[in-house]
Every structure is written in C-alpha cells, then in structure tokens.
Amino acid sequence: MIGCDPHTPDSGNSLQDSISTQPAGSSEETAIVGRLPQGSSEWTAAEAVRVERQQQDLPPLAGHEILQRYARLCAATAVKAFDHRGGRAQRPDQAALQEVKKNVPAVSRLCLQVVCARTQDQLLHKIATGPASRSADLTHLGIALGHANRADSGSFWVGVILAGRILPAISPQLVNEGKREFDLNCYLCGHDTLVRLRPPKEGDSDCLMAICPNCQCVIDLYGIDADGHYHRPSWFMRQFKPKTIDQPLEAWSFLLENCRNKHKRFGQHGGWQTAEETHRLLGGGTKDLAILLADWLGACGQDAKVVIGQIDGNPGVWVVLQADGHTYILDPAAGRRGSRRMPPRAELLTSYVPRLQFDWSGIWFRRSTGWTGQYRGVDQWWRGPWPLEPPPEETSNQTR
C-alpha cells in the first residue's frame, strides 16, 4: 500500500495532468513552508534545511505556495512511479519542471531534488546535505515527503525538495535596500526576464539603469541624491521656477551664462541634484543643468523634457523643447557661446539619439531600437506606469 504525507495530494493523475488542471494561485492551496503544521514530516524536513543553512551562514529560504504545491504533486507522483527493480523513486520529467517555470515566471533558477531512504532520519540527512541547503543563490522552497509500504521491497521514504531563486518586482524601496536583481516583464517587448540594475558605464557612480536583455531598450532608471538614496528621475523635478523669466531662450541663456558645468559626461561624478539645488549652487553636472532648465520651462507652461541618450555615441543629456510646431534641442553643455545662438532644431542634430525622456510628471522610454527622430507619439514612446514618488516633507519656497 502506498501512502503520502497527510498534507500531500494523493491523486491518480500524472504530475503533468495535475499541474495543467490546477492554476497558479488556486484557493485550494494549504500551508506553505514557514506555516507548516509543527511536527509534520514536511515541517521536520523544512527545519532540517533551515538548521543546515544556518550552520552554513546562509539566509533562510522563504516559503512559496506554488512551489510547495508542486513539491507535493512531485512527491505523490514519485512514490506512485516507484521502480520495483531498482528500488528508486522516479524523477519527474523535464516537461513537468517547465510547467512549474511557466506558472512561476519570476523564478530565475529552479532546483529539484528527489531522494529516497529506508528511514526518515536517513532521508532527512540526504535533504539536509543537498543543494537546497547549501546553495547561496536560492530564495524560496517547497518541500514534501511521501511514505510507501510495499510487500516486495518493504517501506521507504521519498522526499521532494523544489527550491528556486525568485526575484521581486523592482521598486525604489528595494533598490535602496541594496537589491540589484529583479524579475521584470519588459514593458516594451513583453519578455519576462531577469533584470540587473547597473551603471551606464563601468566606473559611473550616480545612477543605475535597467536594460532589457531581449530588446536592449532602457526600461528603468534610478539616480542617487546627495544623501545616497536612489529615486526615479522625475523625483528630482518639482516645477521649480527660480526667476520671473518666462521665455525659453532667456532661461537657456541665463543657465549657460551663470551656471557652471562641473562635469560633462552623464553618470561620471557625484549624485543628482534637484533643480533648486542646482540653482542655489549655480552649478552641477550636465544632467543637473538639464533638470533645472526643463523644470524651469515646465513651470512656465512650456513642453520641455530632460533627455538621456547618446551624443556621437557617448552618454549624454540634453533638453528637448516643443514650441511653435517645432522640436528644439537645448544642450546644457553648449557653453556661453551657445547662449548667443538660436537653439538648433532636433532634425538637424542626428547625432543626438535619445533612450528616455522625463519631466516632473513621468518618464517616457523609447520603444524601438531604431531612432526615427520623433520625440512624440505613442508608437515611439512608452510612458512608465509607476506612481510619482512623493518629494521630501521639507519643501522649499518656490516662485510660481
């Protein structure tokens, strides 16, 4: 007679059938690791894994409802498929594992361990010395035990450990906690993937960028403030208007003539400054001057955005202004000579290739890898769906 843990489903269907008929998030799911009934065989096995990881100075594995359910299905199937000749539990096939990955898209690594032993103590030893107990990059666990009594081969225990590395969704809070790897469904190509936040270039220190490995488009960006906290770019803009100047050309001229550009390459030095900080210091990096100018023009009712992209193949930042039916580029790195000329039209500066643009209200990401020269249009630009991050409680006096 074959029996499984009291909390393990005992169905005559195959694992493949069981997975396909039980959708993820089923209301029939019961306890997960961390809330397993104390004293049950599953709880004892989970405790063995926890103790071993603690001795290895590894973080504990969190429970996961779907992994737990599939571990139980695997255990039931493995016990039923017991091989009379070899006395070994049959390992679930790869097709079943693919179903698990399909139902848990955030998993970046899946580790399946199927073990059997004559006694429960022997089984627990195998579980405790297995990969789930000693792998530093695993985060979540599902665990199940099955027990069989057969007339021809006696009794035995079967254990299934289904552990995975399941990454969280990206958020400013997790970024500031030091997390750099996230699960993300690319908003542009739909590819569900592991995304790593990295500086635009090696050695850059003031921002982190996420690039989809499938379509190679930028899909998120974080700048670091003076206190060492990361924020999405719109956080640095507060519709700050430092002067009574309302004309774009006068504002651009004031910035070029009075604000010192301390470092021109994007991402190279220091943190990001708010528009007010840049105005108070009368200087900053190119991105800081661009934020001040775009914020200023936006407060005056102009359609101006900060653009991050490449200039002649190198990282760059500029301001794009939509006015009088035309698109103009205002380059904060133009210097004082630039203040004496009309800003060039965007179609004349083909070496300026944007990847994203932002203002105080949001961020827009370029959809296609080929640049069409259009700074507007939903077919070319996708707006990030995140809510605006609130500014600090201490708000400064602003001239509106």
Describe the structure.
Helix 1 (15-21) runs parallel beside helix 4 (94-103), helix 2 packs parallel to helix 5 and helix 8 (248-258) runs antiparallel to helix 10 (286-299). It contains eleven helices and 18 strands. The strands form five sheets. The chain has a six-stranded antiparallel beta sheet. Strands 1, 2, 3, 4 and 5 form a five-stranded mixed beta sheet that branches. Residues 1-33, 83-87 and 394-400 have low confidence and may be disordered. It folds into two domains: 2-166, CAP (Pathogenesis-related Protein p14a); 215-383, C8orf32 fold (Roll). The N and C termini lie far apart (81 Å). 38% of the residues are buried. The chain has helices at 15-21, 41-55, 65-80, 94-103, 120-128, 131-134, 172-176, 248-258, 275-281, 286-299, 335-338, and strands at residues 2-4, 62-63, 107-117, 140-150, 154-166, 181-185, 192-196, 207-211, 218-224, 230-231, 260-263, 283-285, 303-311, 314-323, 326-330, 352-359, 362-366, 381-383. With 400 residues, it is an alpha+beta fold.
